[in-house]
Amino acid sequence: MSTRSAFEAAGRTPTRGGTGDARDRAGHADSPGGSVPEPDTPHPISQALRALEAIGEAPGGVSAQQLATDLELPMATIRYIITTLLDDGQIVHLADRDVYVPGRRARDLGETLSRQLAVHPDVENAISIVHHQADAAAYYAVYRDTEIVIAHIEDSDRRPRIRPLDVGFHEAVHSTAFGKIMLASMTFDQRSAYFEHAGLQAVTPSTICDREILEEQLTHISGSQVALESGEFQNGLACLGSPVHAANGVVVASVAISLPLDELRARRWNVERAVRQGAVRISRSLERLGVGSQ
Known about the structure:
Elements: H1 22-25, H2 44-57, H3 64-71, H4 75-87, E1 91-94, E2 99-102, H5 104-116, H6 121-134, E3 137-144, E4 147-154, H7 177-184, H8 188-198, H9 211-224, E5 227-230, E6 237-245, E7 251-260, H10 261-266, H11 268-288
Antiparallel strand pairs: 1-2, 3-4, 3-7, 5-6, 6-7
């Protein structure tokens, strides 16, 4: 399954149905005084994005209760998120079915992101080849300064993509194969400045948070041109990646795959070969396209 627009039409033109304000439409009748409880979890923005993604992926819309079940969040938090998204026009409430569907602003954002992140057909083809050769979800990540943007994904029901639930890539760069490749391409001073701002938080018990150990790993990545993380971003999951170079030799992106940890260990070398070949294939495409030639 290739990357897709985050938001699809819900089968009818959604309208802000029903009467009352957003709190009523979010199902706040049982909240004392109609007030909206503040979420007490540490990543409210991440939770809102997860909710927006879940709503966008539900063809016929999703109820507040189902959203709470799917995201494993308290109803108080879901109500707060829904109220915020309704007020911002990101979602709308279909009162006749009591479900939520993407709003105009969310669809506009999805279309804008799709245009901005559009990759060349050569890149799409290369990632598709990696997906099939490695028999794994395959990713193309682009580096924008110190930000990582996942520009293209090839996955399937059998080989699903990573679903970051509690933290985003920007908070866990050091725990992902994409991020380790980006960090390995920096100088020591550049990394020091980055970590001073971003920190080195533990995402799982396996996350490498010791700067000295991480530096040793990044030195190895720079030399081997392959990055491996084992359960650092999600328990039981491993990712392996290789850098993509522009014509001038600068690391501008990476190709990576994700698999259950035990399976990657068993198939490591075949998977690594597919990832390396994919990265080389895209690097050559970027050179033909003149990316980084100046």
